[in-house]
């Protein structure tokens, strides 16, 4: 059986952390100088591992196997959030590198083809999931022309300045690339809460985002009796209570909804709010449930406008994101590897977060696996995973990758 | 009976509006150049009316009657909010000026003493209610040394630059000044809603302000199941619902409470809020009810901390402001004048807003009267009152003032 080298894996993970290390966390925004330096380093490590590696025309690092036969792509991202953790994305890419090396060191697996990818800008510094979207053939040139970061720098200018603008872009090779594996930290607290070490992802949840704008009447908070107020803030609070009831009736244990932002206007202690906005996001693995929640929300809005002195307008933000099922056959390889290496310590679960895998799944069968996040924390400097879990996860992924490729090779030969 | 001159009153109100006029509203922040110019103009008008007028050491314009005998002080303020209306405060001062003139034009009232005041900085550009606080003998020098406006200018420097710092300050004259009348716009919608023209103020309500800080756990909004969340924003919403129930049981029709400002941290759609603050103000005319509401709030906080996964801390902001009763005998003069001039078109009501009268009441009997605000709007450029109501209000105030002074003179002689 293929064996990874835990010391080599951890050393490379820590070297990558050095690019943008900030306290225990990392600040390595897509295409920033420190991110570009990390990409050059990664190209070097891939090349040493025998891959044909380069940075492509959008910034993705792609290491192509020189072996023939069906290829498994293992990838994730090495860019971070503005205050990012050291493992979010980075761990999956380093797993891919270590697995390519480990397979090449064993006779039974030396012939297998593993491509390794670090997709650019998963975190959306300029344009979220850009690398994977470009890889699957989405027309991203409009995104590239229009996208800017928070400092107002244009993506097109940044690619030009980095000398990447003219380069070829990594693209899906139909027939050769036959499966995608994305290992990742869980970024939630479920594995830890029930004492499991590996999550086999069934579905990446879908997502809806909306803004609800309440319009009442701004008034003096001392002189306006409660009975004649049209308090937009109080209406917002009442609406959330009704929404919690309605969503609670539709939800299962994995359904989530979040009011992450609220704004009252004018935001003064002495003024009855005349306007109030809330930002709502909800996620679920079941497309029918997402639609039922949308209908329930629209009905609440209609009912509110029919009966309340404050009006509310529902604005949809962005395109809806539909749930994406992971490939069951690939997932079974992960499950078998997990059961062999950590019997009873794994479970099947949805991914509540978005990942490049949901994009790659458009062109080939895709799967994901999780390792536990300490305290469920991610997108934060203190994000971490026990080293034993990092190492176990890579051994599970390597075992599953070999198993997938041996089966796929048998089918293709 | 004393008769005011409606044309003279309206002309002076419009002249005063000219200082800082901005569209239909006025920007005349305390001690700004345009406010100082308005004060100089006001001193001139008071002098023409026969008063001994000057700007005092804190900026208050005080016009002292040259008549002997007990004096009625009529006052309000001519400074405005950052986006102020043309009548808030200004109307009461112009009433005082017109009443001093009108009384001097009639044989039966020519001997009566009316002092007229425009108290500095009622609106708190530097230090709220400064002029009336100085007048009643509060030690305001600490306020003057410490106070700055939003631009960071120090009050002490501004008084120095205006040449006011060394001047004597107007002070309450015990024995001579025996009553205070403050006419004002309602700044609320009650008179308009029930079709009344005059409000006779019974009490200026007391006020409590607090911040409630909820502390939960910041988490990824996709990967954190509802069951293990500690969502500070959701806790805030649940708390408000319980508070509304508790306050609703204690309230009468005049009790008001307002959540004017809410902040969720970090305020992102994809992050479960880890902290949330709400700013609460409540007002009532009954000190016992204010205390009962404080107790209910403290009990809700205790109960919440005992049972909820999110903790809440109650922080009291500023000193509590206790309700101030208006003098019933003075109010009766206003009520009789209102009934004589507008039979059935007046009512007794609390003032939901703060006024200089609540400060002046510390040293002498004080009363207030209101005229309707169109749409209940104040602290806004579109603040207005029907001219008929402005004129009627001044005639009622003049009649009441004469009646008060004739009675007080009889008592003192």
Structural features:
413 residues, four-stranded antiparallel beta sheet, homodimer, 17 strands, Alpha-Beta Plaits, alpha+beta, Aminopeptidase, 2 domains, nine-stranded mixed beta sheet
Write a structural description:
Two copies of one chain form a homodimer. With 413 residues, chain A is of the alpha+beta class. The first copy, chain A, folds into two domains: 6-204 and 324-412, Zn peptidases (Aminopeptidase, 3-Layer(aba) Sandwich), CATH 3.40.630; 206-321, Alpha-Beta Plaits (2-Layer Sandwich), CATH 3.30.70. Chain A has helices spanning 6-18, 33-48, 90-104, 130-135, 141-146, 155-161, 190-194, 232-250, 287-307, 328-341, 357-360, 387-412; strands at residues 21-22, 25-26, 52-55, 61-64, 71-76, 113-118, 177-185, 198-204, 206-215, 219-220, 256-265, 271-272, 275-284, 311-321, 324-325, 346-351, 366-371. In chain A, the strands form four sheets. In chain A, strands 3, 4, 5, 6, 7, 8, 15, 16 and 17 form a nine-stranded mixed beta sheet that branches. In chain A, β1 (21-22) and β2 form a beta hairpin. In chain A, α3 (90-104) crosses α12 and α8 packs antiparallel against α9. The first copy, chain A, starts with 5 loop residues before the first helix and ends with a helix. The model of chain A has no long low-confidence stretch (mean pLDDT 96). At the A-B interface, β10, α8, β11, β12 and β13 of A face β10, α8, β11, β12 and β13 of B.
């Amino acid at each position: 059986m293929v064996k990874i080298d835990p010391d080599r894996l951890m050393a490379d993970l820590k070297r990558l952390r050095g690019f943008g290390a900030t306290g225990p966390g990392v600040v390595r925004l897509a295409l920033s100088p420190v991110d570009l330096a990390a990409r050059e380093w990664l190209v070097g490590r891939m090349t040493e591992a025998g891959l044909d590696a380069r940075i492509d025309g959008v910034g993705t690092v792609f290491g192509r196997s020189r072996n023939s036969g069906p290829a498994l792509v293992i990838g994730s991202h090495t860019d971070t959030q503005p205050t990012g953790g050291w493992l979010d994305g980075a761990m999956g890419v380093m797993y891919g590198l270590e697995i390519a090396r480990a397979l090449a060191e064993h006779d039974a697996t030396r012939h297998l083809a593993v491509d390794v990818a670090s997709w650019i800008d998963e975190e959306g510094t300029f344009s979220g999931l850009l690398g994977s979207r470009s890889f699957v053939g989405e027309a991203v040139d409009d995104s590239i022309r229009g996208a800017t970061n928070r400092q107002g720098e244009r993506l097109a200018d940044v690619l030009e300045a980095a000398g990447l603008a003219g380069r070829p872009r990594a693209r899906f090779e139909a027939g050769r690339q036959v499966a995608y594996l994305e290992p990742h930290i869980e970024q939630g607290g479920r594995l830890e809460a029930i004492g499991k070490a590996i999550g086999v992802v069934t579905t990446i949840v879908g997502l809806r985002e909306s803004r609800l704008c309440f319009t009442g009447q701004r008034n003096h908070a001392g002189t306006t009796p409660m009975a004649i107020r049209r308090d937009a803030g109080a209406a917002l609070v009442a609406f959330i209570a009704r929404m919690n009831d309605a969503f609670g009736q539709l939800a299962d244990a994995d359904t989530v909804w979040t009011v992450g932002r609220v704004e009252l206007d004018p935001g003064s202690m002495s003024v009855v709010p005349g306007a109030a906005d809330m930002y709502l996001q909800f996620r679920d693995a079941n497309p029918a449930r997402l639609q039922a929640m949308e209908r329930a929300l629209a009905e609440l809005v209609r009912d509110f406008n029919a009966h309340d002195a404050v009006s509310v307008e529902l604005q949809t933000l962005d395109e809806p994101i539909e749930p994406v099922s992971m490939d069951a056959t690939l997932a079974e390889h992960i499950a078998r590897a997990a059961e062999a290496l950590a019997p009873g310590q794994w479970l099947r679960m949805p991914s509540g977060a978005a990942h490049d895998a949901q994009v790659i799944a458009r062109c080939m069968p895709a799967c994901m696996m999780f390792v536990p996040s300490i305290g469920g924390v991610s997108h934060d400097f203190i994000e971490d995973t026990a080293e034993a879990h990092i190492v176990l996860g890579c051994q599970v992924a390597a075992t599953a990758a070999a198993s997938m490729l041996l089966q796929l090779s048998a089918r293709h030969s």
